[in-house]
Amino acid sequence: MKNALLVIMTIIVIGSIVFFTSCNQTKVSDLEKQLALKTEQVEQLENQLEHLQGTNSSLLDRLSDLSVLSKQGADNISKSLENIAQQYSFIEDLTDKVQTKDSINQMLVSNIKRSLNDFDDEDIQVEVKGSIVHVSISDKLLYDSGEDEVSDEATDIMNKLASIINDHEELDVMIEGHTDDVPMEGSCLKDNWDLSVKRATSIVRLLQEDYYVNPERLTAAGRGQYVPKFENDSAEGRSLNRRTEIIMTPQLDQFFALLESPVLQN
Fold this sequence. Notes:
Layout: H1 2-115, E1 124-129, E2 132-138, H2 155-167, E3 171-178, H3 192-209, E4 218-222, H4 235-241, E5 243-250, H5 252-259
Parallel strand pairs: 3-4
Antiparallel strand pairs: 1-2, 2-5, 3-5
């Protein structure tokens, strides 16, 4: 009986051990699974953290680049505004100078007209073309018919013109001879080219030698019959085409200096 109880007790003990061992193994297995799951989650979180750190670093780099670009953009805008201000100032200054030049030209025209008011308006015409003052004088006031030397009767008009030219040393002066289309006959002059040029040079020589106009300011030119103001089909038209033009212009170096733009920043 005792042996039977002992056997039964042994069986119960062994069963209990087996049971608890089986339960523990199940728990261990469950814990291992949970541990594996947690490990996987940790790895995922670590990967996400690494990705976020990389993204954050990239964003910081971009922010830094944007900061640099923003500063460069601001500098470029500032330089552009400075250039615009310089250009605006230049345009204002140029406009003032042009207006001043126009005023001087108008005053010059008024002085010439006032000085020559004793002569017929048909024989002397004074006008401004752009920035240039033109004085057109009929040949009958300056030369004898068919001649290229200045006549004695032209002394009065040349005195007045020379005085005005000397008063405006900032101007260059071109003397331009013009003729009608009637060919030259019985003269030592070859043709109307010859006549127009020689008439211009006689005026230039007179201004230089008798009125002391600086020859560096003077130019002699002949246009012959090729720039008529009127048709040459009538005596009146031919008479008006026979003329000498005194053209007063700003000196070229001063003119180009006026047009120089300020140096712009890059």
